[in-house]
Design a protein that fits this description.
Radius of gyration: 23 Å
Number of helices: 7
Strand content: 15-25%
CATH class of the largest domain: Alpha Beta
Distance between the termini: 55 Å
Order of helices and strands: HHHEHEEHEEHEEEEHEEEEEE
Shape: globular
CATH superfamily of the largest domain: Metallo-dependent phosphatases
CATH architecture of the largest domain: 4-Layer Sandwich
Strand order of the largest sheet: 1-2-15-3-4-5-6
Number of domains: 2
C-alpha cells in the first residue's frame, strides 16, 4: 500500500472526526451532554485509529493491496474497513482543497481598505490591585502559550449602504472573555484600559463573558470602567449559561453595559440613527426581529448586529443587517501551519473562523476573542478589534 495513501487516510480520519466535534459544539446541548459527547468522539477517533493500526500491523501483507481491490475482499467486516478507508482517503484531499479555497476566496477585497495587527503592550503588574489579580493558571506559563499576549486587529471597511454622516464610525469589538479565574483580573483591567485609549464611538461585546459565578464580582472592577462615546453593548453566549443569566444581566446593567440580546434598539450617533440588534441563538433567547424596525440603509438607519456565533450570518442577511459582529470560534485557538485553524465550533467548520467576510448586504466580523476557558493559545493570539467604518469606496485608511 502506498505511503501517500496511508498519510491521506490518517489526515482524512482526523478531518472527519474533528468536523463532527466542531459541529457538536455549534448546537444547543446541555453542558454535561456536550462534554460527554466530545470525550466520546475523541475516544472513538482514537480507538478506530488504534484498531486500524492493529488490523494492518497484525498482517503486514495487507499493506500490499488497496482496501477496495479484489485482492482485499473478504468478510463483511473487512469490506466495512475498506469502505471507511476509502471515505478517509477521499475526505483528506477534499478537505485540503477546501482549506485552500477558503484562504483565497473569502477575502472581501472590494470592502477592505486597510488591515493591520500589532502586539498590545500591557502592564499586568501595574494594573493589579493585589497579588491575587496576577494569579494565572500554570498552563499560562507554558513556553509558546500566547494566552496573555493581547493583539490589536485594526480594520477599515467600506460599508456600501452607510450614510456619509457616519463616515469614520469607530467600533471596538471583543468577545470570549471567559472569566474563570484561570486568567487573573489584572488582564481584564488592562483590556479595558486599552479599549478606552482607542476612544471608540461604540464598544460591542459578543458573548461568553463569564464561566464561573465567583467571577461576577469582577465586572465592577473591569467592564464597569469601559467608555465609549455612544455606549457599551453586549449579547451573551453559550458559556454565560453556566451562571444565573438573570443575575448576570442585572450585574452587567449595574456596570453600565446595555443588553441587546433578542431585541433591537436605536442609538443616535452624531445626529444619525443606528440600529443595534442582538441574537443569542441557539443557546439563550430568540433573535431580534427587525420586521417593525425602520427600513434599512440607505433610506433608513445603518443596522449593526451582535451575535455570539458566526452561524447567525444567514439571520443577519435575512434581516438586512449591514454589519454583524460575532465571536465564539476563538480563531481556532490553536493554529497549525500551514493549515491554520482546524477546531472551530460552527456548523460551517472553519469557514468563518476569524476575520472579515462579505455576503450582500452583510459584512461579518469574527473576532478571535480575548481569552479562553482552556487557557492555551498557540499561533493565535487573543485580540481586541478596532473597526473603522467608511461610507463609499477608497483605497487608503
Amino acid at each position: 500500500m502506498d505511503v501517500l495513501f496511508l498519510l491521506l487516510v490518517l489526515l482524512g480520519h482526523a478531518f472527519l472526526w474533528i468536523g463532527l466535534i466542531n459541529r457538536l459544539h455549534a448546537v444547543k446541548i446541555p453542558r454535561r451532554t456536550l462534554h460527554r459527547g466530545t470525550v466520546a468522539l475523541f475516544l472513538c477517533a482514537g480507538l478506530i485509529a488504534a484498531g486500524l493500526a492493529w488490523y494492518y500491523f497484525r498482517d503486514p501483507a495487507r499493506f500490499t493491496v488497496m482496501p477496495w481491490s479484489s485482492a482485499a475482499k473478504g468478510t463483511w467486516g473487512e469490506s466495512l474497513i475498506g469502505l471507511y478507508l476509502l471515505a478517509c482517503w477521499v475526505a483528506a484531499p477534499v478537505t485540503l482543497l477546501r482549506f485552500a479555497w477558503l484562504h483565497v476566496s473569502l477575502r472581501p477585497s472590494s470592502l477592505l481598505r486597510f488591515e493591520r495587527r500589532r502586539r498590545v503592550e500591557i502592564d499586568l503588574a501595574n494594573a493589579a490591585a493585589n497579588a491575587a489579580e496576577l494569579a494565572h493558571h500554570p498552563l499560562a506559563r507554558l513556553p509558546g502559550n500566547e494566552i496573555l499576549q493581547l493583539e490589536l486587529a485594526q480594520w477599515v471597511l467600506d460599508v456600501p449602504r452607510m450614510s456619509p454622516a457616519l463616515d469614520g464610525l469607530s467600533i471596538v469589538h471583543f468577545a470570549d472573555l471567559h472569566m474563570t479565574g484561570r486568567v487573573g483580573k489584572a488582564y481584564f483591567r488592562e483590556l479595558v484600559r486599552f479599549s478606552n485609549g482607542l476612544r471608540p464611538d461604540l464598544v460591542c461585546i459578543t458573548g461568553d463573558l463569564i464561566d464561573e459565578p465567583a467571577c461576577m464580582d469582577w465586572f465592577a472592577d473591569t467592564l464597569a470602567y469601559l467608555v465609549a462615546r455612544c455606549g457599551v453593548y453586549y449579547v451573551l453566549g453559550n458559556h454565560d449559561c453556566r451562571v444565573d443569566v438573570g443575575q448576570l444581566r442585572r450585574t452587567l446593567g449595574q456596570s453600565g453595559l446595555i443588553d441587546v440580546g433578542g431585541r433591537w434598539i436605536t442609538v443616535e450617533i452624531g445626529g444619525t440613527r443606528v440600529v443595534l440588534a442582538g441574537n443569542e441563538r441557539p443557546w439563550i433567547a430568540a433573535a431580534a426581529d427587525l420586521t417593525d424596525c425602520p427600513p434599512p440603509a440607505p433610506a433608513g438607519p445603518l443596522r449593526i448586529g451582535l451575535a455570539h456565533s458566526p452561524d447567525q450570518f444567514a439571520w443577519a442577511r435575512a434581516q438586512e443587517v449591514d454589519l454583524l459582529l460575532v465571536g465564539h470560534t476563538h480563531g481556532g485557538q490553536i493554529r497549525l501551519p500551514p493549515l491554520g485553524a482546524i477546531l472551530s465550533p460552527s456548523l460551517e467548520g472553519v469557514k468563518y473562523v476569524s476575520g472579515v467576510y462579505y455576503a450582500p448586504p452583510t459584512i461579518l466580523h469574527v473576532t478571535r476573542g480575548v481569552s479562553a476557558d482552556f487557557p492555551v493559545r498557540w499561533n493565535c493570539r487573543p485580540e481586541i478589534a478596532q473597526l473603522c467604518l467608511r461610507a463609499g469606496s477608497g483605497t487608503s485608511p
